Amino acid sequence: MEQQKRYGHFDDQHREYVITDPQTPWPWINYLGNEDFFSLISNTAGGYSFYKDAKFRRITRYRYNNVPMDNGGRYFYIKDGDTVWNPGWKPCKTPLDFYECRHGMSYTRVTGRKNGVEASVLFFVPLKKWAEVQKLTLTNQSNEVKNLKLFSFEEWCLWNAATDMENFQRNFSTGEVEIEGSTIYHKTEYRERRNHYAFYHVNTPIQGFDTDRETFVGLYNEFADPQVVMEGKPRNSHAHGWSPIASHYIEVTLQPGESKNFVFLLGYIENEQDKKFSAPQVINKDKAHALIAELDTTQKVDQAFAELCQYWDALLNIYNVRTGNDKLDRMVNIWNQYQCMVTFNFSRSASFFESGIGRGMGFRDSNQDLVGFVHQIPSRARQRIIDIASTQFPDGGCYHQYQPLTKRGNNDIGGGFNDDPCWLIFGTVAYIKETGDFSILDEMVPFDNQPGSEVTLFEHLKISMDHVINNLGPHMLPLIGRADWNDCLNLNCFSWDPNESFQTTENVSEGTKAESLMIAGLFVVTGKDYVALCQKLGKTQEAERMQKAIDAMIEAVKKHGWDGEWYLRAYDFYGNKIGSNECDEAKIFIESQGWCTMAEIGAQEGMVAKSLDSCKKYLECEHGMVLNNPAFTKYIYEYGEISSYPEGYKENAGIFCHNNPWVIIGECLAGRGNDAWSHYAKILPSYVEEKYQTLHKVEPYVNCQMVAGKDAFKPGEGKNSWLTGTAAWMWYTVSEFILGIKPDYDGIRIDPCLPETATDYTVSRKFRDAEYEITIHPNGAQKGVKAITLDGQKVDGTVIPYSAGKHVVEVTM
Ligand code: GLC
Ligand code: GLC
């Protein structure tokens, strides 16, 4: 095996990933903020901030498609004599004597040293605050007095990140700022319809400032050598139009051994309509002053940071495993759960692969994200379910996504993705099982946010199931609509026009023929959940009605969906098979293998085992399982976007990490623990981290959406990190199916599926008002619980009945 360069390592004790070389193969980022105010931050302090919505309320500017890639961010320039450097190496790229970036739980600490000076910046968003704190500590580690010139830098975005990038004829004239003491206010468009502004403050008197970008940088200079910094002299520029920025200038003298702290604060404020101004043209700064006062000393900031750390301690104490395998433990206990929080917060909106402009919160995506998050903060999950359901249509169909700021459905990727409705059941059931809170089903929830249209959430679940039943095709399988989980299998869009979106183009009568086996499996899985829920609620008739539909679906799959060695993927518009041995290319697809094995369709007839074997035989490679095999080598007009991708990438035979867990769960249900584990470990970041930092390219501490598949030019190369359903699915798989701790309505079901080599392990699980300390003794078994004791008493079956308080559970396999 090729020896790969390493750029960092895990520090489990601090729950950090420590990057030791700024020139990572791609920017390795982290997320700050957990509720309203958010930031993306790279290992060189690049990135941007926004309030709630990365499109409509962007606070600082970022350039995509840039050269070099990650340009723009929160930069501190330190001028020490003739040397100018940044703690995060960029943008000056002055070689540092020491560099380190520690990405932790909602914070990042970047430290640089140069010529006897250390600059360490702690970045975080305090809980419940609309601000990013940047605590800069400058330390003189030399024997001489240091006279430093410090310049801060942030560039404002003119709020709407989309128009900010295109409407220059207007933008270059609208920019406005105010300067008051050590605070620079950004108030573009505040004079008209906006009632919000932002500010950048430092808790010390400043000796100058700049707010006009061209003055600061120089029209022919770059972030790497801003003219003001190079000259060592601020120009106190006041921006009028063009591109407003915020830069403080501070002169710092440090005695040998001396350290000084500076608290920089990037804040966001909203004012009531009648309190917008304190004088004509002058913004009302009361709330800004108040926010600054809460965070204007090192002590206050340290306190806020301690609270953030406690918050994460509490969250990560809900599910904690000790297996003795560091690589597994750190993913389960730290990074997988952390990534689940991030995907819950952002869905697929803002990352270094998602512009924050193109996509909002996905209906399907956000429902799936819930299974990774619901144990962390159930109340937020509850609200999310209501928000999502509120965008649904009366026939059960959905907008594919909604905007977080307005919570309204948006049509950017259209609707009619026929898997969407089922996911609402998936998310809601996960919530109820975790919390025991059935009352959510009685919540009155509108359609398409229309007041007056409210019905109960339960009714939404019912119409979600019905939406599938009401949209069956010629083989009595679910019509695919625009697409199912695979956004790129667009079987009702025939396009030769490169300017048409594959997802929103409907140029053959939509959904009349093409059918999806993936939705069939999904319907059976979520249908079983729905039936169990109805039984729990005493809705016997409804349970029976749905059971019949499920049975019919199972029969339809067995009859029309089985190809001999695996499940078919779909029928196209003409009724031809997709994902069949009869096809020239893409003979087998992963999605239907995952869902139909999870649904255990045809298990008795041997279909499940054959399907799982076929995944190993045709889909598996060194880096995981590819989506389809062989890859498409040519564009197929009647398939849509899927065959538009070159071989091995994305939906055309990429390793779409998101769907690997489906097969892994299929393996677990079938009791094949060795196979489940080997698939799992292949895409588990900590295992990849150890081997492939350079090849993999993207952050080694989280899953990415896609790894180049075996047909690709460079198999194993990762892309689209962070925002992916993989996070929630990896969590669901390992926590519930591999380690086998599964919340249920009346308690916790214990049913692990492990590799034979697994040794004893213990899971601490907080569940509602109880705390369980569960020790599993696998005894070499892959599956099958023989005996359970709860506080020393034998339990019948595999569910530990819920009761509040602390409990000790012993499980023998
Ligand atoms: C992206 C989308 C997700 C979709 C998947 C496969 O990850 O966010 O909704 O299921 O691609 O196309
Ligand atoms: C593209 C991507 C897919 C994503 C979709 C969302 O088709 O390949 O992964 O889900 O865009 O619009």
Concise account of the structure shown:
The protein has about 800 residues and is an alpha+beta fold. Helices cover about 30% and strands about 25% of the residues.
Write a structural description.
The protein is an alpha+beta fold. 28% of the residues lie in helices and 26% in strands. The chain is built from 20 helices and 45 strands. The strands form 12 sheets. It has a 10-stranded antiparallel sheet, with helices on one face. Strands 6, 7, 8, 13, 17 and 18 form a 6-stranded antiparallel sheet that branches. Strand 4 and strand 5 (49-51) form a beta hairpin. Helix 14 runs parallel beside helix 16 and helix 16 runs antiparallel to helix 17 (673-682). The longest helix has 21 residues, at 326-346. The protein is globular, with a radius of gyration of 27 Å. 57% of the residues are buried. Residues 413, 487-488, 503, 641, 650-651 line the site of one alpha-D-glucopyranose.
Could you give the topology of this structure?
Layout: E1 8-11, E2 16-19, E3 29-32, E4 37-42, E5 49-51, E6 58-60, E7 75-80, E8 83-85, E9 98-104, E10 107-114, E11 117-124, E12 131-140, E13 146-159, H1 161-164, H2 168-174, E14 177-180, E15 183-186, E16 196-202, E17 208-212, H3 213-217, H4 227-231, E18 244-254, E19 259-270, E20 277-279, E21 282-283, H5 286-294, H6 298-316, E22 319-322, H7 326-346, E23 361-362, H8 363-373, H9 378-389, E24 399-402, E25 409-415, H10 420-435, E26 444-445, E27 455-456, H11 457-469, E28 515-516, H12 517-536, H13 540-560, E29 570-571, E30 577-578, E31 588-589, H14 590-598, H15 607-619, E32 620-621, E33 624-625, E34 628-629, E35 655-656, H16 660-669, H17 673-682, H18 685-691, H19 693-696, E36 704-707, E37 718-721, H20 726-738, E38 741-744, E39 747-750, E40 761-767, E41 770-777, E42 787-790, E43 793-795, E44 799-801, E45 805-812
Parallel strand pairs: 41-45
Antiparallel strand pairs: 1-2, 2-9, 3-4, 4-5, 6-13, 7-8, 7-13, 9-10, 10-11, 11-12, 12-19, 13-18, 14-15, 15-16, 16-19, 17-18, 20-21, 22-40, 23-24, 24-25, 26-27, 28-29, 29-30, 31-34, 32-33, 35-36, 36-37, 38-39, 39-44, 40-41, 42-43, 42-45
Helix pairs in contact: 7-8, 7-20, 8-9, 8-10, 8-20, 9-10, 10-11, 10-12, 11-12, 12-13, 12-14, 14-15, 14-16, 16-17, 16-20
The structure holds alpha-D-glucopyranose (2 copies).
